[in-house]
Amino acid sequence: MPLNRRLSQLGIRVSLSLGILALAVGPGFAASSNRATNLGPEDESKQISVTVWLNLHNKAALDTMVQQMYDKTSPNYHKYLTLKDFKTQFAPTAKEAATVRDFLAAHNMKVTSADKNNHFIVAQGRVGDAQTAFNVKVNRVMVNGAVHHATTAEPSITEPAGALVSTVQGLSDLAYHANVSPATNPETGKPYAGVSPSAVSPDGLFYSGDCLRAPEVVSFTTGGTFPIAVYGGNRYGADITSTVPNLPSCGYDAAELQKAYGLNQLYKSGLDGTGQTIVIVDAYGSNTIASDANLFSSLNGLPPLTSSNFSIYTPNGSATCGTDCLNGNWQYETTLDVEWAHSIAPGANIVLVLAADNSFTNLDIANLFAIENGFGNVLSNSYGISEIVLVDEAPSELVVENGISEIAAALGISHNISSGDNGDALASDTTDFGIPQASVLANAASPYATGVGGTSTFLDSKNNIKLQTGWGMNFVRIADPTPNPPTVPPLAFGFQGGSGGGTSVYFAKPKFQKGHTPAGVKFRQVPDIAMNADPETGVEIIVTPDSVPGDDQYVEVFGGTSLACPMFSAYWAIANQAAAAEGLGPLGQAAPILYELPEDAITDVNLRPVDTLLNVNGIIFNPPNLPTFESAAALAQPEAPTTRFVSALFQSSSSTRWDVFTFGTDSSLATTAGWDNVTGLGTPNGETFIKQVVKAVK
Question: Radius of gyration of the chain from Cα atoms?
Fold first, then answer.
C-alpha cells in the first residue's frame, strides 16, 4: 500500500506546497481540546527563535544513490560520498541561503547563526513577525501540566523563498527526552541512592552481579495464623542482609559485561576500537563528565580520558547542566553514554557533541555538526520522542531528522539511535498528548538509522550470559513489611518500563528488512539490534548527581536503551577497526549489514521453555476459603502476545516487602524467535559477530 494511502487511512493529510512539506493530523495540538488546553494567543511581542531548513538538491537522486551504497549487488556498494561531493551535488547553495536570509530580514527576523553548508539558518524575532512570515498563529497551550507554545497549522511561505525551504522549526517547542532509566525503588517509584566509590564489594565492583539466583521458597503468615502464603521460584538480586538499605540489589561493572559480550577475545587480538572515534550527541551534558568518567575508568581498569582521546564540542555556542538538564536527567544520560561506550571500546576516541538544550533544533544542529565535521564513522543518539506525536504535532521534525540520518548514511556513518524505554509508548508520550495509539520512537524508525533496543541480561558465576530476554518489566506485591504478612490478593503494579519498538506509521519498510520482519507489514520495523538495557540488570556509573564540580561522586545503577545504544555504537567501532585492518573502508550504516549476517553472528533473544520452569508460583491459604493457586502467569499478567517470561522473588532492602519481578513483559510488544519488536535480530555475538561483519562486506 502506498505511504500516502496508509497515512490517509490514519487521518493524516499530506501536501507539498511551495517547497514546504505539510503533514498534519487535524490542526495540531493547539486546537485539539482532547490533547491540550488552549490558553490563547502567545504574546506577539515575545521573542522566538526559528530554524529554517533548506531543500536539498536532487533529492530523488540522493535517495537512489544511498540505496545503492547499501545494496551489495550494486557497483556503488559502500562507495560513500565525501563531504565535498555531497555539498557539490546535493547541498543548498549560498545564493539560496542568501535568498532565505533576505526573506527573514524582510520580516524583521535577525539571523543568529547558519550552517556552513547552507542546510539551515537560525533567526530570532517577535512572535508577531514570525506569524506573518510563516502564515501561522502561535498559541500558548497546556500539555500534561506544562505550558508550551504551538501553531494551529504547519507553516507555509508564499514568497519566492518558499520554494527553497523544506521545514521550519521552533514555532512549536516540543523537545526530545533522554532514554535513560535509573534502577528504581519499587517502594517509592524513585531512583535508588548511590554509594561512595570507596565502598568496593567483593562481588563485582560495587553491586552484586548475581541478578538471577537459585530458586527459593518463602512463607508468609499473618500474626502466626491465617492467611498464609507460600511462594517459590527464582530469586532476584542480593539478600537484604548483604545490601545497604535503599541501594540497588544488582548492577554490573565493566569487566562483567566485557566478558558477557565476548569482548575479551577481541581485546586479546588488538580489537578494542583503536583508530576509531565514537561520536556521542547529547543535550546540556554534565559539568563533571571528565572527572566522573576518569574515576570510573580508574576503578574499572580502563584507559584514562585525556585530550588525546576525548573531546567536547558545543555547536550552539555553549552547553552547561543547570535546572532543566537535571530535571531531564541529561547529566546521567551523558555520563552513561561516555562511560559505557568507553567500557566496550576502551581503545576508541570519544567525541562528545553537546547541544545547548534538548530542543529539536539544537539537537538536530548538533547531529549535523558532528556529521559535517567528520569526527567519526559511528554516531550515537540516546534520546527521542514518540513518532505518532511528531506525526500529529510536529511533522517537520520527521523530515529534518530523517534527512540528517540520510546524510550520515551517504557519508559512511552509522547513525545509531536508542529505541526508547517505554515499550509501545502508550504509558508515556502518547498518553501525555491524548493520543491512544502505540508508537515507535521517531528517530530510531528512520530507514537510514540503526535502531537499538534492549534486553534483560542475566549472568552466571563466570560472567557468561545465563539467559536474556527482551527488556520489559512488571511487578506484583506478595507480602507487606516485616513481619511480612501476605498481600491478599497479590497487588499488581503492572508495566514499569521496557524496550521501545514496533511499526512505524510514517516510514516505509526498507529493502534490508524485507524477508526478515513480518511479511504483511509494509512499514519500517524497530529495532534492528539490542544489548543490555534493563535497569534491574543495569550497570554501574560514577556520577556527580547535581553536576557541580567538587561535589561528592557516587556509584549509581542505570539502564535504558541509553545504555544499549552507546554499547552497540562501541561494538560497531570495533567492527570498523576490524574492517580497516582488512583494507576495507568504513562500514557505514549498521542496519543493512546486520540483516545479511548468518545466525551465529547475532544471538537470537528467545526464551526456551526450560528457562521458565523456575518462575514464581504461589498458594494462599485462608480458611474457610479454598486454597488459591497463584500461577506464574497470573502473577506476571503479561499482555498478549507474550507467553514466555522470567519471574523472580525480590525483597525490598528499604521496607522488607516482597514482590515478584517479571522480565520479558514489554507492554504489547513481545520477544519471539527471529526478529522481534523488542530486541530486533538479537544481541551481537562477540568475535563471531565481528568476523562475520567483515566477511559480509568483503
Answer: 25
Strand ranges (E), 527-604: 529-532, 539-543, 554-559, 602-603
DSSP state of 144: T
Beta strands 110-114 and 120-126 are: antiparallel
Instruction: Name which of 352, 377, 346 is nearest 276 in CA terms.
Output: 377
675 pLDDT exceeds 90? Answer: yes
Using CA atoms of 302, 303, 309, 313 in order, give the dihedral in degrees to the nearest 10: 50
| Cα–Cα distance for residue pair 247/654, rounded to 1 Å | 8
What share of residues in the chain are helix, strand, coil (percent, to 5)?
30, 30, 40
pLDDT digits (tens, 9 = 90+) for 508-540: 999 999 999 999 899 999 999 999 999 999 999
Where b means 16+ CB within 10 Å and e means fewer, 614-623 reads bbbbbebbbe
Q: How far is CA 201 from CA 174, 196, 209, 320, 458, in A?
A: 43, 11, 10, 33, 19
pLDDT in tens, 368-417: 999 999 999 999 999 999 999 888 888 889 999 999 999 999 999 999 99
Among candidate residues 234, 639, 219, 175, the one with its CA nearest the CA of residue 363: 175
Handedness of CA 488, 493, 498, 500 (dihedral sign): positive
Under 8 Å between Cβ of 118 and 92:
yes
Cell triple for residue 136? 501561522
Query: Can you tell me the distance from the alpha carbon of 500 to that of 537, in angstroms, rounded to the nearest whole number?
Result: 17
**Assigned C-alpha cell, 124:** 530570532
Angle between helical axes of 289-299 and 330-344 (0-180°, round to 10): 40
- What length does the chain have? 698
Question: What is the C-alpha to C-alpha distance for residues 158 and 17, in angstroms, rounded to an integer?
Answer: 9
Q: How far apart are CA 478 and CA 486, in angstroms?
A: 6
Using a 10 angstrom Cβ sphere, with 0-12 exposed, 13-18 middle and 19 or more buried, the burial of residue 432 is middle
Q: What is the DSSP string of 367-430?
A: HHHHHHTT--SEEEE-EE-BHHHHHHH-HHHHHHHHHHHHHHHHTT-EEEEE--SBTTSTTTHH
User: Rounded CA gap, 256 and 539, in Å?
Assistant: 10
Q: What is the pTM of this model?
A: 0.93
Q: How far apart are CA 468 and CA 340, in angstroms?
A: 19
- Tell me the sheet residues that pair with 170: none
- The continuous run of DSSP H or E covering 6 comes out as helix 3-9
